[in-house]
Specification:
The complex is a heterodimer of chains A (346) and B (275).
Chain A: E1 3-12, E2 15-25, E3 30-34, H1 41-49, E4 56-61, E5 64-65, E6 76-79, H2 91-101, H3 106-119, H4 135-147, E7 153-157, H5 165-182, E8 185-190, H6 193-199, E9 202-207, E10 210-215, H7 217-222, H8 227-232, E11 237-245, E12 248-251, E13 254-257, E14 267-272, E15 277-280, E16 288-298, E17 301-307, E18 313-319, H9 320-326, E19 333-338, E20 342-345
Parallel strand pairs in A: 3-8, 3-9, 6-7, 7-8
Antiparallel strand pairs in A: 1-2, 1-4, 4-5, 9-10, 11-12, 11-14, 12-13, 14-20, 15-19, 16-17, 16-19, 17-18
Helix pairs in contact in A: 2-3, 2-4, 3-4
Chain B: H1 12-38, H2 43-50, H3 53-86, H4 92-99, H5 101-104, H6 107-118, H7 125-128, H8 139-164, H9 167-175, H10 180-209, H11 212-218, H12 228-237, H13 241-269
Helix pairs in contact in B: 1-13, 3-8, 3-10, 6-8, 6-11, 8-10, 8-11, 9-10, 10-13, 12-13
The chains are: A alpha+beta (346), B mainly alpha (275).
Chain lengths: 346, 275
């Protein structure tokens, strides 16, 4: 089932939660809706599910007008952040709920529930109550419950938000596999960029009720469309400066060649990621002198605060192996170059 | 239980000691006195006291009327609690305060008022008299009085549970295709069941022991509208202390067994809440 949204608007007590959003999801896609809290992503998801009514705009499911179709007739599976499992029902009855509503036969129900139980790897726990399950297990039951009536669309609202880091990672893998097997159109909301980058084949980034960028994880990461995305996705350095002459900006010892569309003396902000700062012990072309002021161990990388003179400093990240082999230490003089950056007008 | 075992959080000994002392003083000693007083009777006398036809009729009336009243309150109390929690309407706080009035009102005042209203010449009794229905001085009137005093128990036990009920659960049911009716009957009501049973048993227990509001409206006709607490009072007025305590003891045992059963049922149904 494909999803199409046209010029959707929603206001809560004067707060514009969703502003004029249009988007289209192909059938079978796996898309993340990423944004900080309060950006309107959950509201958008709930409107698609019919759990929230838009002020204006249109929602089409499989090309058919669904804006005024009630939630129970949309055939949309919805997974809530806090599971929303039926506490008084066993795991079996929770998953069977949507099938019982559709008055399926006992045998059909039993077969489908057991099929889903093995899919969520919880066979044998069918008689447990939700309170007897761990958080990760509960969320898997919630996904199975949503999938049981074979919905055309699966919507997940911060599905892993309430779980600890290890379980989140497992569930990410699991949701990917699940999507490969079921091919149900999936849209999930998250505020965790790693989750979005890792799981989705397409990411929509929302901010202040608007979609700021729509692209693949690589496009989003390497070509941020706006200031907000450059700062929001991944770690970044940013420097404010002005265009020195057509096609060139100078900041401290660094020289950036920039798009000639920027006029001389125009104020600009340049973003570059710490791992795009290339650090070596001995001078190579285009590098500038720097001094390591601080080092910080960050697992797979080591981060350095580099003093580049003129009271200016930047962060650089070097893969741990490289860093250890080079033997970088504090107060050492090194050379640095910025290999990739993005320029936005201020 | 090992009382000697050291605990991370201190205070168990003190709290447990205080609890037991308090329970003994307030509940167990009076009950023990009841048993002691009754033991003055021989077995034959005891049976005669507690199983005479007049007393038996009063058990049926007391427990029967209390049961019907508690059932009635369970239904309408739930509706009231639902309205108070789910809807915001002008005067909501007044209605909320009204619910507690049966708690505060001296029961005798309630009894006299109800009698005045439901008597054949009363405001409401007048409407029913031509239809041949008399409310005051019948089991119907007794039940009405018991409904009056039992209402707050159901409303006040259900209210907090309804308030804490996760609204997402209902949304989940809707997104799974459930109608409103299906959602309410299969999701909302079963979630309320444990609290509901508690409210029912509280209202029931209160009604069984009720005296003040009933004696005025019941008319106190032996075999017909005489409740057990009245029988006990009558015996006391005749200085038949052993007889009074014997009937009291029987009431106590029946009530205790019923409440125990209700708790057991609740425990089994409320399995999903624990852990």
């Amino acid at each position: 089932m494909s999803i199409e949204v046209k010029n959707l608007n929603k206001t809560f007590n004067g707060f514009k939660a969703v502003q004029n959003i249009s988007l289209k999801l192909e059938s079978g896609s796996l898309v993340a809706l990423l944004g900080p809290s309060g950006s309107g992503k959950s509201t958008l998801l709930r409107m698609i599910a019919g759990l929230e009514i838009p002020d204006t705009g249109e929602i089409l499911l499989t090309g058919r007008e669904a804006t005024h179709v009630s939630a129970k007739e949309r055939n949309v599976g919805f997974v809530f952040q806090h599971y929303a499992l039926f506490k008084h029902m066993t795991v079996f009855e929770n998953i069977a709920f949507g099938l019982r509503v559709r008055k399926q036969s006992e045998k059909q129900i039993r077969d489908r529930v057991h099929e889903l139980l093995s899919l969520i790897q919880l066979s044998g726990l069918d008689k447990r109550y939700p309170s007897q399950l761990s958080g990760g297990q509960r969320q898997r039951v919630a996904v199975a419950r949503a999938l049981a009536p074979r919905p055309g669309v699966l919507l997940l609202d911060e599905p892993f938000g309430a779980l600890d880091a290890k379980v989140r990672e497992e569930l990410r893998e699991w949701i990917l596999r699940l999507h490969e097997e079921s091919h149900v159109t999936t849209l999930f909301v998250t505020h965790d960029q790693n989750e979005a980058l890792e799981v989705a084949s397409r990411i929509l980034i929302m901010n202040n009720g608007k979609i700021e960028q729509d692209g693949t994880p690589i496009e989003i990461f390497d070509h941020p469309a706006t200031h907000f995305i450059a700062q929001f996705v991944g770690e970044t350095n940013y420097i404010d400066t002005e265009v020195t002459e057509k096609g060139l900006a100078v900041w401290g010892p660094f020289r950036f060649s920039i798009d000639p569309k920027f006029a001389p003396h125009q104020k600009i902000r340049i973003y570059f990621r710490p791992h795009d700062v290339y650090v070596t012990e001995s001078f190579e072309t285009l590098q500038v002198k720097a001094r390591i002021k601080k080092t910080r161990f960050k697992g797979t990388v080591i981060e350095y605060l580099l003093d580049i003179g003129e009271d200016k400093s930047i962060f650089a990240q070097v893969p741990k192996g490289v860093a250890l082999a080079s033997g970088f230490k504090e107060n050492q003089d090194v050379y640095a170059a910025i290999t990739a950056y993005h320029v936005f007008p201020l | 239980m090992n009382f000697q075992k050291s605990r991370v959080l201190p205070g168990f000994g003190l709290a447990m000691g205080l609890t037991l002392t308090y329970l003994c003083l307030i509940v167990l000693f009076p009950l023990a006195a009841l048993v002691l007083k009754t033991s003055a009777l021989s077995w034959g006398q005891f049976v005669q006291e507690v199983a005479s036809p007049r007393v038996m009729a009063s058990y049926r009336l007391t427990f029967g009327a209390s049961f019907v009243a508690a059932l009635c309150n369970s239904v309408f109390g739930a509706v009231l609690a639902w309205v108070l929690v789910r809807y915001d309407f002008p005067g909501r706080q007044v209605v909320d305060a009204l619910i507690d009035l049966p708690f505060a009102l001296p029961t005798a005042v309630a009894g006299i008022t109800l009698t005045a209203i439901y008597a054949p010449n009363g405001v409401i009794g007048k409407l029913f008299a031509p239809l041949g229905i008399s409310i005051a001085y019948t089991p119907l009137g007794i039940t009405l009085a018991l409904i009056f005093i039992g209402l707050p128990f159901v409303v006040r036990t259900l209210q907090p549970v309804l308030e804490s009920l996760d609204p997402e659960m209902e949304k989940a049911a809707v997104s799974l295709g459930a109608t409103r009716w299906y959602t309410v009957t299969r999701v909302v009501l079963p979630s309320l069941l444990p609290a509901w049973i508690t409210g029912f048993s509280l209202a029931f227990a209160r009604a069984v022991g009720e005296y003040g509001s009933v004696v005025f409206i019941s008319g106190n006709m032996p075999m017909k509208t005489e409740i057990t607490p009245l029988i006990i009072i009558t015996k006391l007025e005749q200085y038949d202390y052993a007889g009074a305590t014997a009937v009291g003891l029987v009431m106590l045992v029946i009530s205790f067994c019923l409440l125990l059963t209700i708790n057991w049922v609740q425990e089994h149904m409320g399995r999903y809440r624990a852990h």
